Amino acid sequence: MKKIIKRFWQIISKPSVHLSFGFLTIGGFLAGIIFWGGFNTALEVTNTEEFCIGCHEMADNVYVELQETVHWQNRSGVRATCPDCHVPHNWSDKIARKMQASKEVWGTIFGTINTREKFLEKRGELAQHEWDRFTANNSLECKNCHNYESMDFNIMSERAQVQMKMAAERDQSCIDCHKGIAHKLPDNMHSGEGTLAKLEEMATSGYQAGKSYYSVRQLPLFTDESLSTEAGQLNAATKVNVLAVEGDAIQVELDVWRKTKGFGRVMFEDFAMNINDGFLTKEVAQSDQYMQKGESKIDDLTGLPWQKVEVTLWMRNGSLTESRDTLWTFAKSTYRTSCSVCHSQPAENHFDTNTWPGMFNGMLSFVNLDGDTQALVLKYLQKHSSDFSDEAH
Amino acid sequence: MSISRRSFLKGLLASSGAVLIGPGLLQVAHAATIEETGQWKVSGSHWGAFRARVYAGKVQEIKAFEVDKYPTDMLNGIKGIIYSPSRIRYPMVRYEWYLNRQKSDTTKRGDNRFIRVTWDEAITLFHDELERMQTQYGPWAIHAGSTGWRSTGQVHSCGNHMARAIAMHGYTVNKVGDYSTGAGQTIMPYVLGSTEVYAQGTSWPLILKNSKTIVLWGNDLVKNLQVGWNCETHESFEYLEQLKEKIANKEIRVISVDPVITKTQDYLKSEHQYINPQTDVPFMLAIAHTLYKENLYDKKFIDTYALGFEEFVPYLLGKTKDKEEKTAEWAEAICGIKAENIRKFARMLVKERTQIMVGWSIQRQQHGEQPYWMAAVLATMLGQIGLPGGGISYAHHYSSVGVSSTGAAGPGGFPRNPDKPEKRIHKNKDFNGYSSTIPVARWIDCILEPGKKIQANGATITLPNIKMMVFSGCNPWHHHQDRNNMKKAFHKLETVVSIDFTWTATCRFSDIVLPACTQWERNDLDLYGSYSARGIIAMQKLVDPLFQSKTDFEIFTLLARKLGQEQDYTRGKSEMQWVKELYDGCVDANKGKFTMPDFKTFWKEGFVDFGKGKDWTRQADFREDPEINALGTPSGFIEIFSRKIDRYGYKECQGHPMWFEKSERSHGGPGSDKHPIWLQSCHPDKRLHSQMCDSQQFRETYTVQGREPIYLNPQDAKQRGIKDGDLVRVFNDRGQLLAGAVVSSNFAPGVARIEEGAWYAPIDETIGSLDTYGDPNTLTQDIPTSELAQATSANTCQVQYEKFKGKVPAVTAFTGPTEIS
Amino acid sequence: MSNTNNEPEVHNKSSEWKTFLFLTICLFPALSIALIGAYGFGIWFLQMFLMGPPGH
Predict the structure, then answer these.
(1) Of B160, B199, B307, the CB nearest to A302
(2) Which of A284, A360, B37, B720 lies 20 to 30 angstroms, CA to CA, from A354?
């Protein structure tokens, strides 16, 4: 080995005898150009879809899945090929990615994912690599084509508008919400999480004592700062006044009404309105320690006594938002889509606040809504019922 | 040289990669196994899921789907729907209207003289009329809020298509409620906090295990469970079979409270409690009176779970305005049940676990709110609400209610609302002082008496001045009451548009008729098992649309194109892409609960089955914790007395259930001297409402001399000299019809039945003309149940009948329009 | 080893041509590719252990 290097050194360190200086430099230069051209051509060949789907692992799994999506076929006739999304466009990263492909060659030789079953089992891990990469580069490859600045929010559906505007403000990474847009999601990923995630996305952070917020979904309440003893549950879209923020916990005050028949566990937003704000455990509802009692009145329409209370409890620091508007937009669009599958959905102000629960309960049989969304939609309907609407109907 | 190595590894495969890519989605549709005699395909319907053999472009044979263990014989009628002589072949326009448009002689509407036009012209006419209405009048002049059933299939749901396309153009009058359960769905939220009529009920296995007595109150399970809102697969029948066994072994008593011996009673071999028609409330009140007087009711349950009992008791005891104590003797005179038997019945109810199952017929009559409310009060007094096999239900006869739900999500539907409401062409929302939403059954009143103010469910409604009606897959000339009154109203309409696949009476009375194809001439998907959410079924197109018919999707895409919004209407997706989109949405919604195959596999297999769900008891959560799981009533408790309804100040629906005499009633009631026979128009046994009446061969299995059967009591028939198989003229002051006599002792004296959905077949368009086939709504009255629900009162109807003499007219219903060229 | 030292170097025109061609066509391209490859691997390993996935 040493011999070869030495020989090599001898050869290249000696001046040439027969070949001219011009020939050597021009020859070397030309050879360099040819090499670089060849290299790039080869690199480009590896950057074509044909090349990517050369192995059956790609052709039979992800490629077929892509064909069922909008990234394959759409009304504008633009389509994304494998490298558009999966190969970094920046040179260094691209070369690194190409070297990473050695792993894929390895996989092919040893058949790591040579059957559908093996692939499905490994999909979670493989997808996670890509999601990590998209998260790190803020979905750069998506943004090569899709640009927040170029989006016309006005022609989006209302629901999309709200989501996309929020995302644009934060220059959010596309992959945060759009996982599974071009290939299938790993089997163990719930879409139930989808709704929850959508609700959670509406939450803001950095709550300040002395300000009021609204819950984005149903949330547990606790009696203590350490969040160990459960005190009940806060309903979706419920107003809380933050009294103190202590790390993971926040102390909140709820201005609510309750019926004093029974244990008085259920909290309502306003007098004689069955707009559910959540419920308390029997112990908390019966104890004076957590609440300050206000005026009592009898609701003439039911004959039941109601009492105003201020409840002070603890909850986890999170899942609150400053305004109900985004929650209402989400609820409205959910109501209009989900509740019109069987028949035309009644206008929000067709019923009054206390009629809506009965009507809504009767509609739920064929509607695919989880508990959080149901609670949110019902509250939306009640808050936009004939009691709150001036519009003649 | 990693490039060349890799290329070498993959190069060979690269070229073959393109070959490996599967065939297009559409081709998969044809991938069903091919046999010598054609292809077997999967589809579904309200009557059941089935496999169909298609050969030479024709449906040859239908056989029930394997999952369905109790298929209905109505599957035999499917082929006849596709190849019916009633099929609409071309876009048609009423001749007189074609010449004179809105100035046409509307008294000629219904003469059935039509002219054939091209699709292009038909859509232009349709669009121009919508445009004229919006510009000349306003949104109040168009009513496109049709109601009723439809063909199955979630992509092509006809109401959704019509609503979406028309909403893209402008606002129109909308409706609430429906013809089946109008009174029930309005009263029950006040009483039990849910519409009840469309709610899942306690699972059958729990009922079979726990109930000792089941009361079927005006409820024919075996007849009505044959059809479902979605694709029906008849799981309930397994339980009915077990129930039959338990009755034979004397483990369960089933008592049918009904004026007639029902199909269910015949099947179960169960007991009968005869009751005079429309007198359920007096019977119930007397039961309550007995329970109260004999101290048999559950006071503790009432205290914990109900409000307003003390306000109701004085009425029971005759201490209110009417001064009438609701004793068994009082009731006997009205309901025809011996006082002693009423008391025995009351005692039996409290003895053991009792499940009350109420049907819908008793709320499709005048004051239909009252029996529903009173039944809930009875159930509250029994104190078994929320117990397995106890309490009350209002839906066990409907769409597999009582078969436990799997909890799987269904496939959603084609969007009814426009995606971009801001692009609506006519943004005018000014209803000119009229109400924008009306109670569904009052639309004829709107046309006849625009501007009239009526009370409805706590609101004052000003009836809009409707000038144009649009119907899609909707046949109000079957489901609305009083045909001759409808004729009067239709004289006042300027334009009527109807979209259907078959020439119903509604088409006959329309101006523009567009031919849709049947649900078996398009690709779609549906939930099967209805309330049990048993699975998803593919509806593979069996044959191409016949004649010039088009799918609902295509028809309304054409209208949207006229509006310049085709892209927004379809979202750039084809029929098959929509089917796939709904399927994929369903897969998503079921993630983590049910694994579903990918679309291609599903389409090839034809179905996904979710198995069986968990047993469930209605209102058990409320019984367990009435505070947290409060009912949806104003108070959260069962409301025996509703202060809210009381405040409305209505005359015919007051603060608590009451007995009101009907405008017409048999057995000595008002009007029974002149028209002594009560005409029951219940849901048909051999159709789904008016669907399948056009299936000729199948219809001929039950018609009498080609007419709809009228079921008659033997004594009544004998008195009038009528024998089984005779033609009968049935009449009252509202109309007259021909029907074929079926004499049966299942029907009590003074009771007759013509099943609704029989096609209206007038001799001509004139008011009062004879209906040659036997649509019972020729005779029914168009009055509201009360100021609360403003719902239909079809079962409050007295008639007289006689043997038909004279020249027998031909049936005019099933041969389509008379084409003028 | 002594062999190479003592043997007189052959410096004829054809061998110089061969050397030139060998260097420009085979060796340097191979080396370049190896170098780029090494660079790529380097970045990859850095990403794996130090930098995390490529950001921007």
Answers:
(1) B307
(2) A284
